[in-house]
Structures are given as structure tokens and as C-alpha cells.
Amino acid sequence: MTALSGAHTVGRARCLFFRGRIYGETNINATFAAARRRTCPQAGGDGNLAPFDDRTPDAFDNAYYTNLVARRGLLHSDQELFNGGPQDALVRKYSGNGKIFAGDFAKAMVKMGGLMPAAGTPTEVRLNCRKVN
């Protein structure tokens, strides 16, 4: 799961999903939080976007993990990967070695792709991730 979370090295999140982190959490880099607050007010602006990785937002690299070590995770769930818990060592490893991250990410994606839903579980491939077909 730690490797798969690295997909957040690309993409953006809506203010609605990170507002609580930038205004209410203490395990966040103050400069990073201030920068995110400029585009995500305490009220309103729910649809305003911010990159998961503000250093290389459109590159698939290990900067996501470097950001976590620096307490610059955009989402609460991201920063939990590096917050004094059992995944800290792996996050540090990925932050220092992009090749190891890329290899582990590829293996995890293949493994996840082989998972099948339980028999009888209704499934659908969404044409637009934000809404049911």
C-alpha cells in the first residue's frame, strides 16, 4: 500500500479533501500549509485544486516520498505513511531511491491488477471516475 500511494506523485486534489489538514493538523510543514491556504480558504473554494506533489506535479517520480519526510503530504492519509509509524523506514527508502520505488510500485500494480472481486459483487469500469456510469 505504501508503494501504491506513490501514485499521488502526480495529480491534484480538491480543497474539500485537504482543508482539514492545512488548517487543523500540527504534523505539517508551516510554509507548505501557508502556501496551500492561499488557494484553499477555510470556507468556500471546495473545488480549488492543489497538486499532491508541488515540486514535480506532473512527473512520476519519488518526490511524493521526499515531501512526506518534509511533512508536506497534502492529504492526512498520505502523511500518515510518515508519522512515527511502521512505514517510516520504507518512506525514507523510497524518498532516497526512485528506482526502488518504481520497481515496487510496478510489482504492486501488477498484484493489484490480479485481484478479483468476490463472486456476485457488482462491478463497473467507470468512464468518468467522479460519477457512476
Could you provide a short overview of the structure?
It is built from 6 helices and 2 strands. The chain has helices spanning 15-24, 30-37, 63-69, 76-79, 88-96, 98-113; strands spanning 12-14, 49-51. α3 (63-69) crosses α5.
From the alpha-carbon coordinates, what is the Rg to the nearest angstrom? Answer: 16 Å
The strand line-up of the biggest sheet is 1-2
Roughly what percent helix?
Answer: 40-55%
Strand portion, in percent? under 5%
CATH superfamily: Peroxidase, domain 2
Q: How many strand segments?
A: 2
Q: What sequence of helices (H) and strands (E) makes up the elements? A: EHHEHHHH
CA distance, first residue to last residue: 27 Å
Major pleated sheet: 2 strands, antiparallel
Compute the number of helices: 6
Q: By helix and strand content, what is the structural category?
A: mainly alpha
Number of structurally distinct domains: 1
> Architecture, according to CATH?
Orthogonal Bundle
Which of globular, elongated, flat, extended, rod-shaped describes the shape? globular
Note poorly predicted spans: none
| CATH fold call | Peroxidase, domain 2
Q: Can you give the mean pLDDT?
A: 94
Describe the structure.
Helix content is 41%, strand content 5%. The chain has 6 helices and 2 strands. The chain has helices at 15-24, 30-37, 63-69, 76-79, 88-96, 98-113, and strands at residues 12-14, 49-51. It has a two-stranded antiparallel sheet. Helix 1 packs across helix 2, helix 3 (63-69) crosses helix 5 (88-96) and helix 5 packs across helix 6 (98-113). The radius of gyration is 16 Å and the shape is globular.
